[in-house]
């Protein structure tokens, strides 16, 4: 049985004090042990949010992670630094990073390896553009992203990996993929993993859907057999919406 995982991706939102205030209000969402809940917050707020979460079961994630431990990489944050804060997860290869910050499959793979080395669980984001979907190239695109991101990752490491399928055209647009379409792609990703590894790993890996998940559509999405959770952007910034989503 795969445990559902609902992650809030705050993106570049909330100051440190706003973040502390927010998690203070949602702390008890961690009490439901049937769902894993996590918040992925801006780097500067990680430490304070971690302290505010205290013994709450809510997990903490970053929105990126560099592959080197230290060095001349102005503006980057290393896995060693993130480990010291005590984060659990790192979003890697979000489409906004691919689109605006030149993230490639190769750098995604390096970041995945670095995160695993520091016992930080990667949430690897994949997804096609609208153009690719319309040209029937969605599966090809997602397959390439999945395979490249897992280059050199062994079977044992796979238990710590989460995938998030986020069709780019559904992010922040209010347009959701139909739950059936999302399930189909997620099942396709599971098959790729089975081909590359084995059935046990494919059955165990958790794959989220992301893209305009809201209280009104979360249940339908979560009811799909292959969808194991949601990566939630906009709706994770509002206490009531995020609460409703976690309690789907
Ligand atoms: P959205 O963002 O829920 O605002 O569409 C999802 C994401 O980008 O992770």
Can you give a write-up of this model?
The chain has one domain (10-24, 43-206): Alpha-Beta Barrel (TIM Barrel), CATH 3.20.20. The chain is 41% helix and 15% strand. It starts with a strand and ends with a helix. The protein has an eight-stranded parallel beta barrel with strand order 1-2-3-4-5-6-7-8, surrounded by five helices. Strand 2 (36-40), helix 2 (43-53) and strand 3 (59-62) form a beta-alpha-beta unit. The chain is of the alpha/beta class and 248 residues long. The protein has eleven helices and eight strands. The relative contact order is 0.15. Bound molecules: 2-phosphoglycolic acid. 2-phosphoglycolic acid is lined by residues 9, 166, 171-172, 210-213, 231-235.
Q: Ranges with pLDDT <50 over ≥5 residues?
A: none
Q: Ions, cofactors, ligands: which are bound?
A: 2-phosphoglycolic acid
How far apart, in Å, are the first and last alpha carbons? 18 Å
In the CATH scheme, the class would be: Alpha Beta
CATH superfamily: Aldolase class I
- Please write the string of helix (H) and strand (E) elements: EHEHEHEHHEHHEHHEHEH
Number of strands: 8
Strand content: 5-15%
**Secondary structural class:** alpha/beta
Write the layout of secondary structure elements.
Layout: E1 5-9, H1 16-26, E2 36-40, H2 43-53, E3 59-62, H3 79-85, E4 89-92, H4 95-100, H5 105-117, E5 121-126, H6 130-134, H7 138-149, E6 162-165, H8 179-196, H9 199-204, E7 206-210, H10 218-222, E8 229-232, H11 239-246
Parallel strand pairs: 1-2, 1-8, 2-3, 3-4, 4-5, 5-6, 6-7, 7-8
This protein binds 2-phosphoglycolic acid (PGA).
């Amino acid at each position: 049985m795969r445990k559902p995982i609902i992650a809030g991706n705050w993106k570049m939102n909330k100051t440190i004090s706003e973040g502390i205030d927010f998690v203070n209000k949602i702390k008890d969402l961690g009490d439901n042990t049937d769902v894993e809940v996590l918040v992925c917050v801006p780097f500067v707020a990680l430490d304070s949010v971690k302290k505010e979460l205290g013994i709450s079961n809510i997990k903490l994630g970053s929105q990126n992670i560099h592959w080197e431990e230290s060095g001349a990489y102005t503006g980057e944050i290393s896995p060693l630094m993130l480990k010291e804060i005590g984060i659990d997860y790192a979003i890697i290869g979000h489409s906004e990073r691919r689109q605006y910050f030149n993230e490639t499959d190769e750098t995604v793979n390096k970041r995945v390896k670095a995160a695993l080395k520091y016992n930080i669980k990667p949430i690897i984001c994949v997804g096609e553009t609208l153009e690719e979907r319309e040209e029937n190239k969605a599966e090809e695109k997602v397959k390439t992203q999945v395979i490249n991101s897992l280059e050199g990752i062994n079977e044992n490491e796979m238990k710590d990996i989460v995938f998030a399928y986020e069709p780019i055209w559904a992010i922040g647009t209010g347009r959701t993929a139909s739950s059936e379409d999302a399930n189909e792609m997620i099942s396709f990703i599971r098959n790729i993993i089975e081909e590359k590894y084995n059935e046990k790993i494919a059955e165990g890996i958790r794959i989220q859907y992301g893209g305009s998940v809201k209280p009104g559509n979360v249940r339908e999405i979560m009811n799909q057999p292959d969808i194991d959770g949601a990566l939630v952007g906009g709706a994770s910034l509002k206490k009531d919406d995020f609460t409703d989503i976690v309690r789907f």
